[in-house]
Amino acid sequence: MSPIHVRGKPGDVAERVLLPGDPGRAEWIAKTFLDEPVVYNTHRGLLGYTGRYRGVPISVQTTGMGAPSASIVAEELVQLGARVLLRVGTCGAVDGALAPGDLVIAQGAVPLDGATRQYLGGLPYAPVPDPSLFRALWAKAEERGYPHHVGLVATEDAFYATTPEAARAWSRFGVLAFEMEASALFLLGRMRGVKAGAILTVSNRIGDPELAPPEVLQEGIRRMVEVALLALLEV
């Protein structure tokens, strides 16, 4: 079946793809970092762009919110020729060492989401990123000297269902932050034979009444995208 949500044609999508959830962020990334970006998809607001970064073809594709939407997009990108899928998004911190604007490089994702569970038929599994992509992200964050943390994240479905107390309980098991797509993306990377990874920007601590100040969050996102693009050049 041809892709029915990401309505690109063969050749429209680069082998290396950044995956933000937000279409506005996808547009910002493409127009800020890529040379001569071209739109290949607008269907359902899943904006997709392809351009070049330091001469290398790169695509930026919106996933929408949550593992179900991200899974659809990832499956269709693979059909269109993508071979490296890198999530660039935000997360809510549960570890007290994380500050708004810090970067989180996911070493693994606790699969609290339903999409991962459905793919696995309920079997236990430990979703982890591609090792070469993970190493590249870590190395580039260290080279730049940006505040960053490496460890587990938890992937959830219901943004408003998780209480601060329940989220903090996961910190006892090494979980740094909560987000909504990584576990399914890591699993699909393994299932479809492509490289998958995730780098995130801390938007707040779970339980905070507000997100980080806009300028703090935006600088964290800029750093995240810079690190992500440099890492893509290495894999």
From TrEMBL:
GO biological process assignments: nucleoside catabolic process
Domain of life: Bacteria
Gene3D superfamilies reported in the protein's UniProt record: Nucleoside phosphorylase domain (3.40.50.1580)
CDD domains: PNP_ThPNP_like (cd17765)
Known EC number: 2.4.2.3
Residues passing through the membrane, by range: none
Limits of the Nucleoside phosphorylase domain: 16-218
GO cellular component, one term: cytosol
Keywords: Glycosyltransferase, Transferase
Catalytic activity: uridine + phosphate = alpha-D-ribose 1-phosphate + uracil
Single GO molecular function: uridine phosphorylase activity
Family statement: Belongs to the PNP/UDP phosphorylase family.
Protein name (record): Uridine phosphorylase
Organism in which the protein naturally occurs: Thermus brockianus
